[in-house]
Amino acid sequence: MKNSQGIDLSVNDLQELIREAVASELQKAVELFKAPAQEEKDLLTREEAAGFLQISLVTLWKHTKEKLIAPKYLGSRVYYSKSELLNLLNNAA
Fold this sequence. Notes:
By secondary structure, this protein is an alpha+beta fold. The protein folds into 2 domains: 9-41; 43-92, Multidrug-efflux Transporter Regulator, Chain: A, Domain 2, CATH 1.10.1660.10. It is 62% helix and 13% strand. The protein contains 4 helices and 3 strands. The protein has helices spanning 11-40, 46-53, 57-65, 82-92; strands spanning 43-45, 71-74, 77-81. The chain has a 3-stranded antiparallel β-sheet.
């Protein structure tokens, strides 16, 4: 037979342990959801990228074909990195 030991906790102590465990898990979940959001802010759609550079979609396409800008593909969608667009602007200036 196994020996079992009882744990002597008051109801308040148990409630506090549960609160701490739930708060810890919620904090982990919040951090997981924050990370992708920060990464997504750097990615712009074709329309947003053209607006950011103040060029037409045709010019954006031309720069992409000339490999001045590297698109990012997420599934069938095309995005441009805002940091790469800033580098393009800095190099052109």
